[in-house]
Amino acid sequence: MRDPVLVINCGSSSIKYALVPEDPALPRQSGLAERLGVNDARLKGVDADGREFSQPLHGADHAEAMAVILERLGGPPPAAVGHRIVHGGERFTGATRIDPAVLRAIETTGALAPLHNPANLVGVRATLALFPALPQVAVFDTAFHQSLPPRAYRYALPQHLYAQHGIRRYGFHGSSHAYVSGRVDHLSTRAHGGWLVAHLGNGCSTCAVWQGQSVDTSMGLTPLEGLVMGTRSGDVDPGLHAHLGRQLGWSLERIDTLLNKESGLLGLSGISNDMRRLEQAAAEHHPGAELAIEVFCYRIAKSLAALSCALPRLDGIVFTGGIGENASAVRARVIEALPHFGLRLSATANAETVGGQEGRIDAGAAGPELWVIPTDEEGQIAFETRQLLSETPA
Q1: What is the Cα 38 distance to its own chain's centre?
Q2: CA distance linking residue 171 with residue 207, whole number of Å
Q3: Which one of 109, 172, 196, 363 is least enclosed by Cβ atoms within 10 Å?
Q4: DSSP of 205-266, one letter per residue?
Q5: pTM
Q6: Chain segment 41-89, per-residue pLDDT in tens
Q7: Which positions are catalytic?
């Protein structure tokens, strides 16, 4: 399959896309259609010649936006479409070719990801309507973590909640963790060993990877569990819901909004969920920004230390995601909070490895390696799409 794969990541009011060539050295066309359904909807992206563009969509829905995207891409149709689907439950352990039965199965997992799966399916249906004969593949965020053992994925809840309702830890950011752990295996002399991966962006998660397989991760039933994130709280006392309900009369919907959209870096700082702005404010001694960064870094280190229990040995730590790739001060604070692992950070290499650069940031000592590796979720989705279709031709 030498033609490019079109990767679609569809949200409730947006479509992120990338046309991924088989040759990674070739440029990609990519973009984002956002604010769909309202008058100021807009498509922004990069054309085949590398030029940036922006055009209004004037209230377009997902199907209309997809038609504009495909017209913008030009040329022959892609060889296949790979769709990011957030939640695959226990049924989907890898990339899966989409057919009516698969669509119905994805619908049944909607209760596990009500903010994500229904929106993902909108993109699938829009693309199926435009390209009914084109191979289309679902790549699930949760699939990479289906290798977790029961001790890592089971909650300490009654058995029937797991057996009848699928309540367990699933994990997310699977495409990112799969790509980054595979990439470090390629780059390091310690290939196929034990790695801790920190995906740090507006959404954050950590993952323990042993010999290419996820063995534990910070996110759980939903993408809310685990680390402090941009607007998500991460771990809180489960009794918080009952406390807020009793003391403040809050509904479950109000509490859910609090934990998903008003907490995290935004809630702690009181000013922003953007790490760049928080670092600037902290430099000016804003107490909320200073606290937000301190809590954020401490919780990452705490999670990495805990996940190290899942590894027979620790070969290194990899940082990725928008914050992980660019915030050298965050990386330094995380490593500083892990004094028991023999980590030796190179201040020079750490400061220089920003802006999408890839490289080692440790001091070259005998201890675990430290890496920064820019993630490529679209490339991973395209790879898994090609791999599946090469193994199971139509």
Answers
A1: 27
A2: 9
A3: 363
A4: EEEEEETTEEEEES--SSTTSSS--SS---S--TTHHHHHHHHH---HHHHHHHHHHS-HHH
A5: 0.93
A6: 999 999 988 899 999 999 998 888 988 998 888 777 789 999 999 999 9
A7: 141
